[in-house]
Write a structure and sequence with these properties.
387 residues; cysteine-type endopeptidase activity; alpha/beta; Pept_C14_caspase; Metacaspase; 23% helix; Peptidase C14 caspase domain-containing protein
Length: 387
């Protein structure tokens, strides 16, 4: 049986906060303090050691009257984040940490894998995701190795750990000084969550978030901030691909358009422009997000690459789809990724760990469908998938 969220009082001001089931601390947005929780609930928490012990949607409901896990109000307007991004864009490149790549190649990437080591909700495949993505980008799309910034808990440099502050800095580094012809990639593998949206900008009433390794103390990263930092600064002639393998990630970049496809292949772009009129597009460039699942779904780990190595199902399906269908379009890519996860005929001649994984996925009734969103609409069956 899955454990449930609970109400806990702030140890300083007494404000009642809704706490996710796996949290050992709570952050109070009313007085901006962190309270350690009693361990009596720990026995109910179950670590996610693989795809089939994952409590689906365990972070959903991560909000309170003032907002849990964020140093800012849930209802903060996107203009606040745009101002922050504008201020950061003027910083000198000399302000980046010394361990950040100095190569400003036309192709560059930030790859983030959060394991949440020694936590009950630890993930085992995220570092492998990052390593696979780096190899994939370098070998398949000729990204220079020196222009790829990796943030994982295996890094020795404290500035390259996947903390909230470091992920923010890495995102700013990625888009800083972008010029026509640049191809940028932001990849995140880790936990995702949802928070109640009080601004009225979200179609489903929830804001999507990413969880840094220190999210319990420092808070999550809201989709508003991701949009303002990664999307808004993109100039004409620049393209960004965000590859997000986390739960509730369908619209995590807050892009204006979400592509809906049917089982027979037809597609339609949904307009997700906020009712408030807040601008969520670029400054002339193109932003595309490929995410592991819909906003209401959970993402999974699987043992399919490098023998027994664990990776995210979404990352595996992406690499598999590109490798088996050279010159693929966005439409075929999305369809093939979903076929891999659903266990369709795409597995002819590709047996072993994959077949075993799919049998268990189907028996557990896990539903995960990769999603495509963008800053502008296009024909997904004509536009080639190029990084």
């Amino acid at each position: 049986m899955f454990c449930r969220s609970r109400i806990e009082p702030c140890g300083v001001c007494g404000n009642r906060v809704l706490v996710p089931p796996l949290s050992s601390t709570l952050y109070c947005n009313a007085c901006h303090t962190t309270t350690s929780l009693q361990s009596s609930h720990d026995s109910a928490a179950r670590p996610r050691h693989g795809p089939f012990r994952h409590a689906r949607g365990w972070l959903r409901g991560m909000f309170s009257n003032g907002g849990f896990g964020s140093t800012g109000s849930v209802g903060s307007s996107s203009s606040d984040y745009r101002q922050l991004a504008h201020e950061d864009s003027g910083r000198s490149a000399m302000n980046w940490p010394a361990s950040f790549p100095t190569d400003r190649a036309k192709k560059r990437a930030v790859l983030v894998g959060v394991s949440y080591s020694f936590k009950s909700y630890q993930l085992r495949g995220t570092v492998n995701d990052v390593k696979c993505m780096r190899y994939f980008l370098c070998e398949k799309f000729q990204f220079p190795n020196d222009s790829i910034l990796m943030l994982t808990e295996e890094e020795r440099d404290p500035k390259r750990l996947p903390t909230k502050e470091n992920i923010r800095a890495a995102m700013r580094w990625l888009v800083w000084g972008n010029q026509p012809g640049d191809s940028l990639v932001f990849h995140f593998s880790g936990h995702g969550s949802q928070k109640l949206d009080l601004s009225g900008d979200e179609v489903d009433g929830y804001a999507e978030t990413l969880c840094p390794v220190d999210y319990e103390d420092k808070g999550v990263i809201l989709d508003d901030e991701l949009n303002a930092t990664l999307v808004r600064p993109l100039r004409s002639g620049v393209k960004l691909h965000a590859i997000i393998d986390s739960c509730h990630s369908g619209t995590v970049l807050d892009l204006p358009y979400l592509c809906r496809t049917s089982r027979v292949g037809s597609f339609q772009w949904e307009d997700h422009t906020p009712k408030s009129g807040a601008f969520k597009g670029t400054s002339g460039g193109l932003a595309i997000c490929i995410s592991g699942c819909d906003d209401s779904q959970s993402a999974q780990d699987t043992q399919t690459l490098s023998g027994s190595a664990i990776t995210g199902a979404m990352i595996y399906s992406l690499i598999y789809a590109v490798e088996t269908d050279p010159g693929t379009t966005y439409g075929r890519l999305l369809s093939n990724m979903r076929s891999v996860i659903r266990g369709a005929d795409a597995f002819v001649g590709f047996t072993g760990p994959v077949a075993s994984f799919l049998k268990r996925v189907l028996s557990y009734g896990i539903k995960q469908e990769p999603q495509l969103s963008a800053s502008e609409t296009f024909d997904i069956y004509r536009k080639p998938f190029l990084l």
